[in-house]
Write a structure and sequence with these properties.
This protein has 287 residues and is mainly α. It contains 13 helices and two strands; from the N terminus they run H-E-E-H-H-H-H-H-H-H-H-H-H-H-H. The chain has helices at 10-35, 51-58, 60-90, 96-109, 113-123, 130-137, 147-175, 179-188, 192-203, 205-220, 224-229, 241-251, 255-286; strands at residues 37-40, 44-47. Helix 3 (60-90) packs across helix 7 (147-175). The radius of gyration is 23 Å and the shape is globular. It starts with 9 loop residues before the first helix and ends with a helix.
Length: 287
């Protein structure tokens, strides 16, 4: 005889669902409404249908900004995930030193996005910044008008800010591996690479899935750091999709076009995240 299912536990979830509806559902409905309207003076609405979506998908500026965002997110994953695994493997497993490293890793994560941009902008300042003035002393000019320098600055900023998240997730995954696995590996005479490949990496797959999804979503939506440091320049070389969206909505006050762009932005991020999740879960199931 099957045991009856108690559905009363859902009552505990209802307040959270209600808050999600208020904070996400209602704004999303407003964006959908604006995306099919042509808005004048903020209070005059005229039906536009799919006009904005068609224009945006054919817009070279949108396509360029989308490509820059995808390239940036890919570079961040390529750098931060292996680096995070490497640092997590080098951290001591237990003890006061391990606690110190964990607290140290949490410091960048507690720094707001805007503050990170401001700190790095001061850091690379040619007159008073430690890096900028130091390079000037050696006769090297730190020039953000160079696209490669601008991109390198934003990438290094993000690596400093968010690699700690990957480190902490991987460290937690490593600490959850039973010690019996390592004892068996030592008995078999397994090398460090064999232990990583056959014991540590398989047990980190689900943790890495979370890390990759979180880092993709956050890097794909990056806004504060490039806006503060480069203002989307030089030219439009660091104008990511988020910067393009804010400029359309706030500077041009083109609410209909900005809403349509925001929906496309949201759907692209949802599709890529779902694809990554599906592929990695399928490989995890086959392993």
């Amino acid at each position: 005889m099957s045991r009856p299912v108690n559905h009363k536990s859902w009552l505990l979830v209802l307040p959270a669902l209600f808050m999600v509806l208020l904070s996400a559902g209602l704004p999303l409905m407003a964006v959908v409404n604006y995306s099919v309207q042509d808005v004048f003076a903020g209070d005059q609405f005229f039906w536009a249908g799919t006009q904005w979506f068609e224009q945006i998908l054919r817009d070279p500026d949108f396509q360029s900004a989308l490509l820059r965002s995808l390239v940036f997110a890919a570079l961040i994953l390529i750098i931060e995930v292996p680096l995070g695994i490497f640092i997590a493997l080098r951290m001591p497993p237990r003890g006061r030193l391990a606690n110190f490293y964990i607290v140290l890793m949490c410091v960048p994560l507690l720094t707001p996005w805007v503050v990170v941009g401001l700190v790095w902008k001061l850091f690379i300042n040619a007159e008073s910044g430690l890096l900028g003035a130091g390079l000037n002393w050696f006769g090297i000019t730190y020039n953000l008008d160079n696209p490669l320098v601008a991109w390198a600055t934003i990438i290094v900023m993000d690596v400093w800010h968010w690699t700690s998240l990957v480190v902490l997730l991987c460290y937690a995954g490593l600490m959850a591996i039973p010690n019996a696995y390592y004892q068996a590996a030592r008995i078999d005479g397994a090398s460090a690479w064999s232990v990583f490949r056959h014991i540590q990496l398989p047990n980190l797959r689900r943790v890495l899935l979370i890390a990759i999804l979180l880092r993709f979503m956050d890097s794909f939506m990056i806004y504060a750091e490039p806006f503060v440091v480069t203002r989307g320049g030089p030219g439009t070389d660091t104008t990511f999709l988020s910067v393009e969206l804010v400029q359309t909505a706030l500077l041009q006050f083109d609410l209909g076009r900005a809403s349509a762009m925001g929906l496309i932005y949201f759907l692209i991020m949802l599709a890529v995240s779902w694809s990554l999740f599906t592929v990695m879960m399928r490989r995890d199931g086959e392993a």
